[in-house]
Amino acid sequence: MNNHPFTHLDALESEAIHIMREVAAECANPVLLFSGGKDSIVLLRLAEKAFRPGRFPFPLMHIDTEHNFPEVIEFRDRRVKELGERLIVRSMEDSIKKGRVVLRSETQSRNAFQSVTLLDAIAEFKFDACIGGARRDEEKARAKERIFSFRDEFGQWDPKNQRPELWDLYNTRTHSGENIRVFPISNWTELDVWEYISRENLEVPEIYFAHTREVIRRAAGLLPVSHLVQPQAGEKIEQMTVRFRTVGDMSCTCPVESDAANVDEIIAETAMTRITERGATRMDDQTSDASMELRKKEGYF
Amino acid sequence: MSAIEKISFDQTGLLRFITAGSVDDGKSTLIGRLLHDSKSIFEDQLTSITNTTRKRGSEGVDLSLLTDGLQAEREQGITIDVAYRYFATPKRKFIIADTPGHEQYTRNMVTGASTANLAIILIDARKGVLTQSRRHAYLASLVGIPHLVVAINKMDLVDYSQSVFERICKDFAAFAENLNLHNITYIPMSALNGDMVVERGDHLNWYQNSTLMDLLENVSIEDDINREDFRFPVQWVCRPQTKELHDFRGYMGRIESGSIRVGDNVTLLPSGLTSRIKEILRYEGPISQANAPQSITLTIEDHLDISRGDMLVKTGDAPQVSKAFDAMLCWLSEQPLDPSRKYLVKHTTRTVKAVISRIDYRVDVNTLDHQTVSTLNMNDIAHVGLKVQSPIVCDEYARNRATGCFIVIDESSNNTVAAGMISPA
Fold first, then answer.
1. Which of A243, B49, B298, B321 is the most exposed place for a label (fewest CB within 10 A)?
2. Mean pLDDT throughout A140-149?
3. Percent of chain B with pLDDT over 70
4. Residues of A in contact with B72 (CB under 8 A)
5. What does the pLDDT look like over B199-211, one tens digit per residue?
């Protein structure tokens, strides 16, 4: 007979499963946002744990910036096929063609504009709940956001007017046209996510592991060289051993120098790291003290 | 077949706590100290708050800036209800519900306390037990927080005096006697200098008990959940209706309290029909026993009509099935209670129409006096009677937090307007 403690991962997992089942039961038309990134990979495992042997009571959706790392898209499609679930892809290119998104240049970061495509997709499918992989430890605006985060008909988050959230009793009610964003792994940290990936033996895209890549140094970070990022005057291309801590828009997602080549080494590195995940990897979060807060007010994830 | 494994909950790896106190009591400094000394503050966060401190014309690092985040708050110099912070030691992971101390405090503390295992009430050693300390103690007892730490802070400003500490302990204990508070631990400390927070320091050698961190890491929270009464509100019914699983009916939910084994006799409420547990399923496979707070899937021997909102309990250990009950209600909304209106009550997985049929009295959270009122405003706490359209399956909050709590929703605005705790009839 084994006697093992109820670990923090067991507690977090049970909470997340409970949250997902509440969404399925109380929302008329939910969707799970799946990007191929590590947090949404964890969400998929939690959905399996919540609903198997049944099918997921919601489709998956990816808001595609078309500035993705090809490895991530390949992984996304393979994982969806393995699960036998339905994936909706809505691309920012459509929003650009329709004139809903106007970019200053082809290579500009598209992260902020995802909100437009996301809100269009919510309207198109009449989704009343979007399950996402955001965590409160990522950023200070997130730290104050509810697990069930209410958005008005413009998709806006009003931090001063949030519904109180007590015990595990979630208020899922919306009026027509409004929606809620639900974050089942709100209480997880970056380290918890990697420990869970290890425990569950989950596959993640290769770019999370150390590899040799052409990068340039810009501002405080490194940027991966691609058709979107080319050296400017005074910058030079370097070969470095790096990995990504988040996967997002190729034009603004910075890799970090690392030799961590497998999940256990990433856990060791994450436990020791001294820089927050977004601080290290997202140039769009460094533009001001309130970048995330402003984006969320406009309907961001 | 079933994996036989016993899960021990005495060293549960996740502890949630709340800190009660104002900035003046050194609350932000204490949180900053816990994060800093457990190496949970990141360099970019430190850089950011150092920059902000300098921008405001101060020197050094103001650790309280770690806990006020949003632009809206910085502009107005206020803090918005609850922020959650995370840190971990090799022994445990911790979630802090950090609630600000301004006038909306009751609502915020009740919200943060609702999921907490433990509360830290901060007292300034120079000021002793104040009205607000009494308020914090009352709210902790109202929400039934299982463990209470009274942190007597700023000991450096009273020369680390043992007699000051002992006098404050005595004052607090005298007040707490009238409240339903157990497991009170008193710790003298200086959050500013770090004495007795994570390190013992050199100044409080007369105090022999654990440091705050030591206590947070080791306090047993096994019995914070009711371990006796099996309560399983059905969240979701799984019917795959595939070829292989044509007749499969799995009842999915989280065990809110107690435990269950394959073969146990169970009663379905509110109907009262009975059956036996056939399987306990997890994604990983079947198990023979499960405990709160695990999320599981149950199958039963008989074909009963079971849907969301029903509750499975062990036969012979039934909760109340009730259409009228009494409760302590904390009003959360800026819109006052309208006693003539119907509201929605969400209790476990069941949502029913309700009226607040009586307001017996309102509690003055500073004096604990009872007052007669005809409505409830934001931050009011009152003893009330409720009537619901169809029965709920409940326990007294004092016996079972999970099946004794409910929220009240305004059907027209969809806002959560009150939090309730079921009291003895």
1. B321
2. 86
3. 86
4. 159-160, 293
5. 999 999 999 999 9
Inter-chain touch A171–B283, beta carbons under 8 Å: no
**Whether B153 contacts B196, CB under 8 Å:** no
Question: Which pTM was predicted?
Answer: 0.91
Q: How many CB atoms lie within 10 A of CB B150?
A: 24
Average of pLDDT values for A115-142?
89
Who has greater pLDDT, B51 or B265?
B265
Report the relative pairing of strands B416-423 and B405-409 from DSSP bridges.
Answer: antiparallel
Which of B17, B48, B84 to mutate: most A Cβ within 10 Å? Answer: B84
CB-based contact A167 B69, cutoff 8 Å: no
B405 vs A contacts (CB less than 8 Å): 166-167, 169
Residue A98 C-alpha, separation from nearest chain B C-alpha, in angstroms: 33
Dihedral angle, C-alpha A150, A154, A155, A160, nearest 10 °? -50
CA-to-CA dists, residue A246 to A68, A160, A250, A256, A282, angstroms: 12, 29, 11, 10, 8
Binary contact (B69, A274; C-beta < 8 A) = no
Residue of A nearest to B82 (CA): A144
Interface touch A53/B240, C-beta < 8 Å: yes
With an 8 Å Cβ cutoff, are B69 and A143 in contact? Answer: yes
Mean of pLDDT values over A114-128: 90
Task: Tell me what pLDDT residue B243 has.
Answer: 87
Q: Please name the residues in contact with B51: beta carbons below 8 A apart, sequence gap of 6 or more.
A: none
Cis peptide before A30 (omega within 30 of 0): no
